[in-house]
Fold this protein.
Amino acid sequence: MALNLEQIEAVAAIVRAGFNISAAAAALDRSQPTLSRQIQDLERALGVRVFARTRNKVVGLTPKGEEILHIGQRMLRDAKNLAELGRSEAVADSGELKIATTHLHARYALPRVMKTFAARFPGVMLTLRQGDPVRCCELVASGDADIGITTVGDKVAGEIVTIPAYRLARCVIAPRGHPLTREKSLTLKKIAAFPLVAYSEPYSGRRIVDDAFARAGLKPRIVCSAIDADVSKTYVEIGMGIAVLARIAVDPARDRGLVAMDAGHLFKPSVLNLVVQRHAYLSRQALAFVALVAPHIDTTLIRQCIEGGDIDRAKLAREAPLATADLC
């Protein structure tokens, strides 16, 4: 009995659904009996059990099933790449490009990039998939986004590759007239004396701030945590506290009630990364978008990373330019 991609899709869907066959069948728009039969056919063809079962209920992958999933995901990715290659050659200016990013970058770093790209490729629909950095990486890893533009943690999924593109400098913001704005130089101790509006924990900005205070033996009083810079600035402006934000999040023309004070000497910069799926095919449009975001990164290096080549990410991060609002 021959193998087919529908069987592999069934395995991947069941794993994504937490081994709930009904949910997996719904996600694939197949009936549950059809999905169960496809798994049985696959196991019969391979002569091994893919899923571990307890009382006829799927509870996990067998060791061989783990290997089958890994190889199968590569097969699905390659099939998708072939389809993308054919589509992009057939119709050069159409389709959809999905970008996973955080609110900060969607609002402050990407508007001009998006506008320029839309003018060059009017037939391509741009879709922003916003979330925290962890979610952005998950979207790229699963293929639900083509490109991620986000900070990342120390550990990333094996399905993605990350390319350091920019450093994000930090500043402290406070309402006009706040005592901190009269200080000639900022210190962590001075900042810790005031309530802090902080990022939520999945964000690298939160980890950087927490680590800096911890190294200094200080524990600031966090009165509120938020997932985007605009919310943080709103709460600072009404007097709830001060905040440590990426410098690009401050718009002097709009944030007239706030004062931004350089804090690069107190908090290390975050690193903004390009995130792509390992071994993915990047269309001409996707490469053009990447070139608009980070024109200083060579296309050859990007392809090298996608194909699993070794790059010095630490060096790239150190040498990355500081990000400015509207990267393009």
User: Anything to note?
Assistant: The mean pLDDT is 88. The chain is about 45% helix and 20% strand. The CA atoms of residues 61 and 180 lie 56 Å apart.
